[in-house]
Design a protein that fits this description.
Layout: H1 3-11, H2 27-32, H3 37-40, H4 44-58, E1 62-64, H5 71-75, E2 80-83, E3 86-90, H6 115-129, E4 134-140, H7 142-150, H8 152-161, H9 163-187, E5 191-195, H10 206-226, E6 233-235, H11 246-249, E7 254-257, H12 263-269, E8 274-279, H13 283-286, H14 289-302, E9 309-313, H15 323-331
Parallel strand pairs: 1-4, 4-5, 5-6, 6-7, 7-8, 8-9
Antiparallel strand pairs: 2-3
């Protein structure tokens, strides 16, 4: 059973030879390969090389073409500030507080901003790995993209002051995620992860999620499935207990859950959905490797008999994480 087969069986809650190892290693792959984040985020070949090297070093089952949460805004004209050792900051919003999103036009992924970097990385990784491991793309979900367009504060004020304009911005962001995601599938991604951190209950209430965001996420996931994705994956970090039960209904085959939820609670809320998580990302900075290994082993044990589990972190493992802590995740699967 190879890595891709292992993951696909897990997404269907079928037996696997061992628990798939799918840590969220993005910028850390650059650090591990001796690259600056700036170079990694601008060069698809470098990104692909770093991801494949990280997979080999840590014996993981997946590689990722995730850049940062400024990609969509930059493709629409927003200025970004780059540094060698940090992710970029969006330093100017695409839309002013009073602007109508109707004036926006969807960008062309083959040429807009750094979207082509992602596509090049996917083509390279799929060309080198074929179907031996999961090649995953990534898009910003509707709320996160909307926050890129207006800035998070203005986007949240719109929910109160001008719900129709917010709805229009969310609809545009939904179309943007679909266009970019389909381009990633065409470039070779087996699946495209929908990251929507701004949809977390830490940012917006669960009622807002159910009314405004769930229907749009459902459209994104359905479009990706129709576009050939091997499975759909929704990743929202934070305290998601109040919304996690929606994920299966809106079409997520895989659901990331963060350290705020126990494995038992996540299984109760999504009994027939593959779950990915939930090691605390910041622990990879300063926790001892034996602690990471114990926590990972406990997670694997919690899903014994149920299946449908990808051992991962609840959100991105920081770029500067200790390599020994990441290796401890793999060690936890020895004998699994």
């Amino acid at each position: 059973m190879n890595s891709l087969e292992r993951i696909l069986r897990a997404t269907r809650l079928e037996p696997v030879d061992r628990t798939p190892l799918v840590p969220q290693l993005f910028g850390h792959a650059a650090v591990s390969a001796g690259l600056s984040l700036r170079d990694y985020l601008h060069d698809g070949e470098a990104l692909a090389h770093a991801q494949i090297c990280a997979r080999e070093r840590y014996r993981t089952d997946a590689v990722f073409a995730f850049l940062d949460f400024g990609v969509e805004a930059e493709a629409l004209g927003a200025p970004l500030s780059f540094r060698d050792d940090r992710y970029p900051d969006v330093v100017g919003s695409v839309l002013g507080a009073d602007d109508d999103p109707a004036r926006l036009r969807l960008p062309e992924p083959a040429s807009a901003g750094r979207m082509p970097v992602c596509l090049r990385a996917l083509r390279t990784m799929r060309g080198r790995l074929g179907d031996s491991a999961l090649v995953a793309g990534a898009v910003a979900g509707p709320m996160t993209a909307c926050a890129q367009l207006y800035g998070i504060e203005n986007a949240l004020y719109l929910a109160i002051d001008d719900p129709p304009r917010l709805a229009a911005a969310l609809d545009f962001s939904t179309r943007l995620a679909i266009r970019y995601g389909l381009a990633q599938l065409d470039a070779g991604a087996h699946a495209v992860i929908v990251f929507d951190p701004a949809a977390s209950p830490a940012v917006v209430p669960p009622g807002f999620f159910r009314e405004f965001l769930a229907p749009r996420l459902e459209r994104v996931l359905a479009a990706l499935r129709d576009g050939g994705a091997a499975f759909t994956w929704l990743n929202i970090a934070g305290p998601t207990a109040g919304i996690l039960d929606c994920y299966a209904r809106i079409g997520a085959d895989v659901a990331t859950f963060d350290y705020y939820l126990s494995a038992a609670e996540a299984c109760r809320l999504l009994p027939r959905t593959c779950l990915a998580g939930n090691l605390k990302s910041l622990d990879f900075l300063d926790a001892a490797p034996d602690r990471i290994e114990r926590q990972a082993r406990a997670l694997v044990a919690a899903f014994e008999g149920r299946g449908g589990f990808l051992l991962s972190s609840g959100c991105e493992i920081p770029p500067e994480a200790a390599a020994g802590n990441i290796a401890a995740m793999a060690a936890a699967l020895s004998g699994d």
